[in-house]
């Protein structure tokens, strides 16, 4: 019987790891740390985001456009109040995506590095 494979962390590439970590720290309130010389945030449940600055990072476009950098992953965060969470994300440097598909259930926001994230109504 083989050992269980467990998620260690999620690496988030960007052009400014300090800026992106600060955005998510302000939005989520997770505990800040460091791993491999890069900033991290860890949730109470143990999920860790590791922010890594890449000089050749290209922001994705969303929705996808042919010939442009596509998103490769996005985050869904459960929130008690979607409008309040969107306003908080915008105040921290994110921006509401031009295209929206979630109706009253979720809103897509782009973080400062261009990664799409959905703020999803709890319940």
UniProtKB/TrEMBL annotation:
Protein name: VOC family protein
Pfam families, alphabetized: Glyoxalase_6 (PF18029)
Domain VOC: 6-122
Membrane-spanning parts: none
Domain of life: Bacteria
Coiled-coil intervals: none
Family annotation (InterPro entries): Glyas_Bleomycin-R_OHBP_Dase (IPR029068), Glyoxalase_6 (IPR041581), VOC_core (IPR037523)
PROSITE patterns: VOC (PS51819)
């Amino acid at each position: 019987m083989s050992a269980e494979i467990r998620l260690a962390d999620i690496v988030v590439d960007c052009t400014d790891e300090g800026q992106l970590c600060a955005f998510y720290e302000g939005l989520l309130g997770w505990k800040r740390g460091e791993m491999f010389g890069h900033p991290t945030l860890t949730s109470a449940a143990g999920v860790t985001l590791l922010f890594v600055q890449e000089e050749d990072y290209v922001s994705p476009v969303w929705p996808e456009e042919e010939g442009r950098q596509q998103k490769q992953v996005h985050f869904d965060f459960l929130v008690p109040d979607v409008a309040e969470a969107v306003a908080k994300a915008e105040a921290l440097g994110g921006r509401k995506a031009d295209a929206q598909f979630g109706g009253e259930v979720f809103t897509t926001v782009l973080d400062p590095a261009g990664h799409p994230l959905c703020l999803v109504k709890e319940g």
